[in-house]
Amino acid sequence: MINPVLGLAFTDVPEATEADAQAALEAANAAAHDWGRLPPIARAKLLQALAQKILDNLDALAPVIVREQGKPLAEAQGEVRGTANFFNYAAGQARSIEGEILPSDNPQEEVWIRRVPFGVTVALLPWNYPAAMVGRKLAPALLAGNTVVLKPHEDTPLSALFVARLATEVGIPPGVINVITGQGETVGAYLVRSPLTKLVTVTGSTAAGRAVMRDAAEHITVVSLELGGKAPFIVMDDANVDEAVKLAVSSRFRNNGQVCICNERTYVQRRRYAEFVEKLLPAVARLKVGDPMQPGTDLGPKVSLAELEKVERMVRQAVEQGAEVLTGGQRPHVAGLEGGYWYAPTVLAGMRNDMDLMQCEVFGPVLPVMPFDDFDEALALANDSRYGLSAYLFTEDFRRVMRAVNDIEFGELYINRIGPEAAYAYHTGFRESGIGGEGGKYGLEAYLQKKTVYLNYAGPR
Question: Of 85, 159, 237, 406, which cross-links 271 as Cys (Cβ 3.0–4.6 Å)?
Fold first, then answer.
């Protein structure tokens, strides 16, 4: 395990083998019957206990997140609270797992449609929210009656192991939660290809989603994919520029830009473009890059050297294609932490929508800003993407709002505000941003399958 603040190893984590993955699947399969037969309210009580246990351990878990992922401590503490919230919210859905009774065309007969668990569920997790994604996947899966094999990202497995340990302490039975550490290309693929796996849920890159779909096809395994994003952030000429600048910076640079719904490309109507940029640059310059354990730090390091080098390549390529670096664009010097994976908050101008940096997910602290002339152009620029996860619009014109609601082709649309998304809503993407979604009643449905029963109570016929 590498601490991205120092660029140095700080602990060892087992590199699981395919035999380990098979053992985890078998343990989950063995526990599936009894766990799935528990009343949902009984499972909910265990989830509530786990939520409280997570909150009780906030001061222990948050530094683990910082050490393995690099986000500032205040953000890590918020992530721990969010993790607990996922379990509490799922527990509140215990009485919403409903079926249907339909009248039959035949006398003395009913047709039942029941919602039942899939069984063994494999959850493949990303590195950007290593604890919160455990809660987001695990909570609804367990509430629905599934058992789970978690495969955290190889760069950030400690948070998942921490939460799993707490789960055993509150009495969740053995085999219900299993954690496998190791490489996605090996043990992750093995888990997806197994005939014991009945459902795969993934949050990760679009490339990872494609690989999972190929592996899942072998046994026609059900797949839910929450993948990459390239969120447009549209600022119209009637918007409050000061507020739009503040939110553009918050959305772009939170968690060092390593957020799937973050502001990946900023479009400002030409009449307000110069004003926006003039106010944006000092706001970005005020951001403090440094030790994430210290108060006042806004950005920690990138999660890994590979991620840092990817951002460097993308900025260099953008400049070669004609972009202008207005601020940042390089590794900053962080005294005493020179080995860390630091990248300065960066603003780029001179953008065209066909540039690679405007079309490919950066997932780092780089904010490209580009002017447009009218609302029709803004809509066209926003939709000119293979992604379709989240989009933002800032305007006071309700007619524009309704056009955006109808014409912006993204799974989430934030109007005059930014994220994060709510646990009770539905987080979903269009196009290459995924299949299925998370959150709310529709997210819970993804962890349940339907069984139809034709019940004749007159006797055999």
Answer: 237
Q: Is 262 a catalytic residue?
A: no
pLDDT in tens, 325-375: 999 999 999 999 999 999 999 999 999 999 999 999 999 999 999 999 999
| 231-415 has the same fold as 2-227+429-455 | no
Q: Which of 226, 361, 432, 445 is catalytic?
A: 226
Residue 360 is a catalytic residue = no
231-415 has which CATH code? 3.40.309.10
Q: How far is CA 183 from CA 18, 125, 143, 180, 396, in A?
A: 11, 12, 28, 9, 48
Side-chain-facing half-sphere of 270: CA atoms under 13 Å: 5
Catalytic residue among 75, 79, 260, 412: 260
Q: What's the pTM?
A: 0.94
Listing DSSP states for 342-370 in one string gives: ----EEEES--TTSHHHHS---SSEEEEE
Topology (CATH) of 2-227+429-455: Aldehyde Dehydrogenase; Chain A, domain 1 (3.40.605)
Nearest alpha carbon to residue 230 among 205, 266, 265, 267: 265
